[in-house]
Automatic annotation (TrEMBL):
Subcellular location: Cytoplasm
Residues where ATP binds: K264
Domain SH2 as annotated: residue spans: 118-210
GO biological processes: cranial skeletal system development
Stated name of the protein: Tyrosine-protein kinase
EC class: transferase
Protein kinase domain ranges (all copies): 236-491
The species this protein was found in: Paramormyrops kingsleyae
A GO CC annotation given for this chain: cytoplasm
Residue intervals of the SH3 domain: 48-112
Length: 499
């Protein structure tokens, strides 16, 4: 069975059978939640397809029904409970001979290319360099990825004395792989084995696969919260306060004493639980690597808990202000902007509007991983009076497109305007937009055609992107798909630079 892609743009549920059928009864068609302990009775037959898998990432059990595994452990799939959570038996490793749930995007068929630790299919050239240059990779570390410049082809990226070099992996008419045309191999595994023994024309002999920096997000907190996401607040332990805003506080928390989460607690009375639940039902379905995942909610009493994935470095705004160019380079800034654009391009594709895109609503994890947060929540918090352009306005005037300020016309194109402001924040390390102006002055000057000037040390090409986002007519502004293409263009290299 083909594994789901890590982008998680299009995941469909399957109809699971009964996990624990009653005695002397055939499994009914509907799903019945299993009760612990699970797997005490024979499971339904496994559908046709792969049966033996390899763990790609470490996974630590979050519930009593889960199974802890480590990357490289061999697994036998017993039952595909949903498309996202499978029941497996560990054949090797720390949980050998035990059974339980694991997320399906943490495993790959044993004999597939995806199971190889050196295969990074959806990795761009610039990302491969960043990965290989991270701490923990040694001289000769390598990965094989899909080529950006020639779709359908592969590239080998190798770490050589602190620099990353790239080689095209060619394929001849017989389907054999090669780097040098006079030395071919039947499979990629054979190619890797050969160059692991002998550099044979490469800059260095291949040593160890590149380390994977981050495991993919699981679909929900566990197998039984995918659909049932109003959870008992007693399962949430608030550990420490991470920050506060005009709508409430954010805490680091722990779910089920196992899983770190972020918990947003809106101020009592700032949102209608019914309105929030309607919006959250949509937000729950929006899943992309560059969007913060909504895990669960607690709405039966005040304060409401909004439970999401945790990003260790907090908001992009504070992250930028704390750095001020000490470690963050221009390349990092462009990459951050591209990550935000990727998440917004997905929302654009889903016909969804953020309404409050700004550096404060982008969160940062390890290795400068950025994800868009709080999409959709503005619609729940704000009322019509919040759009008035006065000095005490709750609405973020300095990030807001003119058509929203004057006519309350929100669209994905007004999000594009806000992205231009966010890009300005990134390039100025968190400087407040229009620093010398009040809200009223900003509204008045924008109507006269005023736009912020180019930040210091900002390339003209990036400033041109900002100005494109700030065009008067919404229809003249670029799409997020176009913006992503333009930002990723900064990382494109001349294909002739390949070794």
């Amino acid at each position: 069975m083909e594994m789901p892609q890590y982008c998680l743009i299009c995941i469909r549920r399957v109809c699971p059978c009964l996990i624990k059928p009653p005695p002397d009864a055939e499994p009914p068609a509907q799903k019945i939640e299993p009760s612990a302990p699970i797997l005490t009775r024979p499971l339904p037959p496994l559908p046709e397809g792969h049966r033996y898998y390899v763990a790609l990432y470490d996974y630590t059990a979050r519930t009593d029904d889960d199974l802890s595994v480590r990357a490289g452990d061999k697994l036998e799939v017993l039952y595909k409970y949903t498309e996202e959570w499978w029941i497996v038996k560990a054949l090797t490793g720390i949980s050998a001979n035990k059974q339980g749930y694991v997320p399906s995007n943490y495993v790959a068929p044993q004999e597939s290319l995806d199971a190889e630790p050196w295969y990074f299919p959806d990795t761009k050239r610039a990302d491969s360099e960043k990965l290989l240059l991270c701490d923990g990779n040694v001289h000769g570390a390598f990965l094989i990825r899909e080529s950006e410049s020639h779709r359908g082809e592969l590239s080998l990226s190798v770490l050589d004395d602190g620099k990353v070099k790239h080689y095209k992996v060619l394929r001849n008419l017989d389907g054999e792989y090669c780097i040098a045309k006079n030395h071919t191999f039947r499979t990629l595994k054979d190619l890797v084995k050969h160059y692991s023994r002998d550099a044979g024309g490469l800059c260095v002999r291949l040593t160890t696969p590149c380390k994977k920096l981050q495991a993919p997000q699981t679909h929900g907190l566990s197998y039984d919260t995918v659909d049932k996401w109003e959870i008992d607040r007693k399962m949430i332990k608030l550990i420490r306060k991470l920050g506060n805003g005009q709508y409430g506080d954010v805490h680091e928390g722990l779910w089920n004493n196992t899983t770190p989460v972020a918990v947003k607690t809106p101020k009592p009375g700032t949102m209608d639980p019914k309105d929030f639940l309607r919006e959250a039902a949509i937000m729950k379905k929006l899943r992309h690597p560059k969007l913060i995942q909504l895990y669960a909610v607690c709405t039966l009493e005040e304060p409401i808990y909004i439970i999401t994935e945790l990003m260790k470095n907090g908001s992009l705004l504070e992250y930028l202000r704390n750095d001020q160019g000490d470690k963050i380079t221009l390349s990092d800034q462009i990459e951050m902007a591209a990550q935000v654009t990727s998440g917004m391009a997905y929302l654009e594709q889903q016909n969804y509007i953020h309404r409050d895109l700004a550096a404060r609503n982008v969160l940062v994890g390890e290795n400068n991983i950025c994800k868009v947060a709080d999409f959709g929540l503005t619609r729940v918090f704000l009322n019509d009076n919040d759009y008035e352009a006065n000095e005490n306005c709750k609405f973020p005037i300095k990030w807001t497109a003119p058509e929203v300020i004057h006519f309350k016309k929100c669209s994905i194109k007004s999000d594009v305007w806000s992205f231009g402001i966010l890009l300005h924040e990134i390039m100025t390390f968190g400087q407040i937009p229009y620093p010398e102006m009040t809200n009223m002055e900003v509204v008045r000057m924008l109507s006269k055609g005023y736009r912020m000037s180019c930040p210091a040390l900002c390339p003209d090409a990036l400033y041109n992107i900002m100005k494109g986002c700030w065009k008067d007519e919404a229809c003249d502004r670029p799409t997020f798909e176009t913006l992503l293409w333009e930002l990723e263009g900064f990382f494109d290299m001349d294909p002739t630079s390949y070794s």
